[in-house]
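To: structure desk
From: M.T.
Subject: fold request, one chain
Message: Could you run this one when you get a chance? Sequence is below, nothing fancy, just the single chain.
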Amino acid sequence: MALRKRAAEVLPGEPRLTPKKAKNALAVAKIVAPAVIPVVVPFVLRAFGEARDRVDRMKARRLGVAVGDLAKYSGKGGSLHARITGAAEAVEELRGRKDATDEDRKFADKSEVTLRQLAAAVRAAERMPAARRRAAHKAAATALDELEQRLLSRLGI
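Reply: Done. Structure tokens follow.
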């Protein structure tokens, strides 16, 4: 009879955590926690900080910007803003070249206007409903792709 009772206590349907076991676990935690928490918390905080830093570096590398500039390129259109900024820097580089022709300078002027318009469109799209925002971002990305191709050919790349 005793064997049957023990087998019934071990069956999978029975709860393993009883009120008495829970009470004992809480009593042990009350004693152990004050000693463990001051030791563990600094390590946990450092681990979270390093994880956040890695995520930030990964995002910055993916966008092609410095980690310090990552906040400028947040939001749904952040990657487009980063691309526009990179293209604007390349246009300035084209304009500042010693061997830049008048045609290169005219292209740089037109590209600068286009980039300003694209940046304004992407900023305006942030407040649009999702479907319209995606369409606006797609149109801006297409225009930016074309501009980048023409810019790369002008730079000789």
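Reply (cont.): The chain has two domains: 16-67, 75-155. Let me know if you need anything else for the meeting.
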